[in-house]
């Protein structure tokens, strides 16, 4: 641990300075984010709140490091050596970072541990892909003239991330951006600022050159200032569609490069021949993981009328069985919502569903018994939902799932596509070949058949209001490059 970080016996992280360009510097203001557990309100830590002057310093350091420093001018293999050192350091901190994230945002420890290990593996995947990425290719025309096609770094990247899976959201941007030679200003959410700063420390320890990375915990107003800063060349954002629209408006107005990974209201289509046990397990993890605070969550279940009550009963039993409680308990499946406002938002949607006439199968308003002091909601399942209802059209971002009846397969596909979002989707069927046909008909960036695992080199992103641009794999690296064609005048 650095001399600038103090971890008390109770696990309290206290940062007094900001990490700007890899150096600890005094913040421009005395404003502080105080992070408290959404489970019991205990103090997890404090970190300075960045203001506009801090953004100016961070962007200036990044601009200088990109325009004059060694990082963009190193070979790809040289940059990969630094990222490899980071990967080793980061993997060694798996348990600490999982526990810290759980303390910050209330995600159950089983989930943060699992995700932390996945994130470690994804960093290794990016390193593997970067080793033979076509950073420079040669084209030869019919006359023998040679043209070089180069992938060069975009420049200074503003990476703005949410609180629900902060390590994943940060590294799916930082690793490819850095491997490509960019410099980055990372803006973590106030709710999970501590693990963001800890991440910055590990990069500094790995040997990133001065100026290459800054970590600025900040509020929305300062985030907007960062996005619109003239020294920023690209904005990479994960978060709500409302915020994404604003960011896109500001950034594209200045012709900055932009990638947006936004919200979702994904549908799981259950065909008549589906195995119900497989459906239940698919919904357990596909809909309720990470407290339901996940953009990819399968929050609309489309069930055939021929098996409707059977499916509703099975999913009702599942929802009622999910253990809610202290997120640091390995037996807990669902922890608290990240903050009071998010709890109230989810509760308001539950009330809206009841008022609109949906059938409450299990759950409902109020906190689970004995958990009234934290930001808890009851895992809730609605049936007899019309796809036009708010609870079927708007992203709730909590453990609330709706079951919508359909008449035939064409009706199911129509309902699945009747959404402003297009991030994820699923189908459950005894015939996976036919499941792929269904997947082709649904307008989403990702889709699973019977809960099958997705290859991690495959692109991830959304259609429609779920954003644009792709992360992961070669597409994720190319998102941080510009293409240059050089007609050399040379011949073979």
- Name of the CATH architecture of the largest domain: 3-Layer(aba) Sandwich
Shape: globular
The biggest sheet, with number of strands, parallel, antiparallel or mixed sense and barrel status, is: 7 strands, mixed
Mean pLDDT: 96
- Backbone CA Rg: 23 Å
Low-confidence stretches: none
CATH fold field value of the largest domain:
Aldehyde Dehydrogenase, Chain A, domain 1
Count of folded domains = 2
CATH superfamily of the largest domain: Aldehyde Dehydrogenase, Chain A, domain 1
Q: Would you state the CATH class of the largest domain?
A: Alpha Beta
Percent of residues in helical segments?
A: 25-40%
Number of helices: 15
Write out key terms for the chains shown.
492 residues; alpha/beta; Aldehyde Dehydrogenase, Chain A, domain 1; Aldehyde Dehydrogenase, Chain A, domain 2; 2 domains; six-stranded mixed sheet; 15 helices; 24 strands
Provide the fold topology.
Layout: E1 5-7, E2 13-15, E3 18-20, E4 23-25, E5 32-36, E6 43-48, H1 52-68, H2 76-92, H3 94-105, H4 109-131, E7 136-140, E8 145-153, E9 156-160, H5 166-179, E10 183-187, H6 193-206, E11 213-215, H7 220-227, E12 234-238, H8 241-253, E13 257-261, E14 266-270, H9 276-288, E15 298-304, H10 308-321, H11 340-355, E16 359-364, E17 378-383, H12 390-393, E18 400-406, H13 409-417, E19 421-422, E20 425-428, H14 432-441, E21 448-449, E22 463-464, E23 467-468, H15 473-478, E24 481-491
Parallel strand pairs: 2-6, 9-10, 9-12, 10-11, 12-13, 14-15, 14-20, 15-18, 17-18, 20-21
Antiparallel strand pairs: 1-2, 3-4, 5-6, 7-8, 8-24, 13-23, 16-17, 19-22
Helix pairs in contact: 2-4, 2-6, 3-4, 3-6, 4-5, 9-10
């Amino acid at each position: 641990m650095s001399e600038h970080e103090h971890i008390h016996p109770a696990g309290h992280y206290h940062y007094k300075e900001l990490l700007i360009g890899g150096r600890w510097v005094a913040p421009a203001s005395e404003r502080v984010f105080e992070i408290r557990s959404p489970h019991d309100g205990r103090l997890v830590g404090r970190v300075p709140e960045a203001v506009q002057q801090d953004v100016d310093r961070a962007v200036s350091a990044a601009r200088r490091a990109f325009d004059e420093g060694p990082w963009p001018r190193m070979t790809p293999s040289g940059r990969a050596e630094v990222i490899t050192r980071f990967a080793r350091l980061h993997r060694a901190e798996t348990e600490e970072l999982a526990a810290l994230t759980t303390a910050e945002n209330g995600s159950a420890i089983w989930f943060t541990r699992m995700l932390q290990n996945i994130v470690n593996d994804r960093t290794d995947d990016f390193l593997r892909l970067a080793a033979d990425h076509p950073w420079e290719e040669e084209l030869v025309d019919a006359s023998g003239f040679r043209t070089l096609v180069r992938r060069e770094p975009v420049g200074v990247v503003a990476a703005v991330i949410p609180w629900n899976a902060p390590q994943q959201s940060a590294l799916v941007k930082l690793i490819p951006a850095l491997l490509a030679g960019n410099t980055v200003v990372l803006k973590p959410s106030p709710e999970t600022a501590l693990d963001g700063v800890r991440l910055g420390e590990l990069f500094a320890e790995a040997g990133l050159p001065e100026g290459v990375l800054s970590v600025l915990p900040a509020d929305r107003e300062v985030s907007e200032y960062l996005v619109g800063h003239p020294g920023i060349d690209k904005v990479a954002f994960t978060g709500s569609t409302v915020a994404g629209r604003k960011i896109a408006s500001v950034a594209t107005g200045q012709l900055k490069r932009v990638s947006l990974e936004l919200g979702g209201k994904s549908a799981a289509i259950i065909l008549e021949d589906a195995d119900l046990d497989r459906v239940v397990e698919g919904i357990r993890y596909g809909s309720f993981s990470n407290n339901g605070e996940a953009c990819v969550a399968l929050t609309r279940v489309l069930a055939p009328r021929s098996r409707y009550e059977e499916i509703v009963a099975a999913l009702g039993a599942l929802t009622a069985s999910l253990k809610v409680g202290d997120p640091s308990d390995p037996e807990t499946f669902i922890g608290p919502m990240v903050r009071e406002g998010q709890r109230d938002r989810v509760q308001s949607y539950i009330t809206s569903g009841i008022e609109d006439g949906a059938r409450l199968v299990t759950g409902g308003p109020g906190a689970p018994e004995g958990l009234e002091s934290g930001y808890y909601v009851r895992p809730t399942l609605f049936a007899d939902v019309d796809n036009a209802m708010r609870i079927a059209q708007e992203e709730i971002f909590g453990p609330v799932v709706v079951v919508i009846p359909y008449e035939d397969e064409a009706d199911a596909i129509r309902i699945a596509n009747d959404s402003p979002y297009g991030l994820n989707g699923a189908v459950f069927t005894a015939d996976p070949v036919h499941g792929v046909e269904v997947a082709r008909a649904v307008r989403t960036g990702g889709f699973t058949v019977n809960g099958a695992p997705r290859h991690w080199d495959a692109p991830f992103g959304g259609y429609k209001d779920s954003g644009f641009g792709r992360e992961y794999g070669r597409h994720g690296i190319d998102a941080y490059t510009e293409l240059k064609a050089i007609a050399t005048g040379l011949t073979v």
